[in-house]
Amino acid sequence: MYQFIFAAIRRIDLTNQIQKIRITADTERAARAQFARDFVLVFAGKINLQNASALSANTFPSISFAEVVHA
């Protein structure tokens, strides 16, 4: 299983507000299928959940800061 991250714009949103969507799925195609009807999706990343559980909290101390800066 993977966690897929997408930048997304709701198809009916006239203001074009970008949202970050995270979804757990086996493939990118399966992840996209859950949101493609309602959102225009741009692939942003993929996290292997089996390896993510082995990481400690201090492995990436600045991830929250990096996500805010680049959002």
UniProtKB/TrEMBL annotation:
Superkingdom of the organism of origin: Bacteria
Protein name as annotated: Host cell division inhibitor Icd-like protein
The species this protein was found in: Haemophilus parainfluenzae
Taxonomy of the source species: Bacteria, Pseudomonadati, Pseudomonadota, Gammaproteobacteria, Pasteurellales
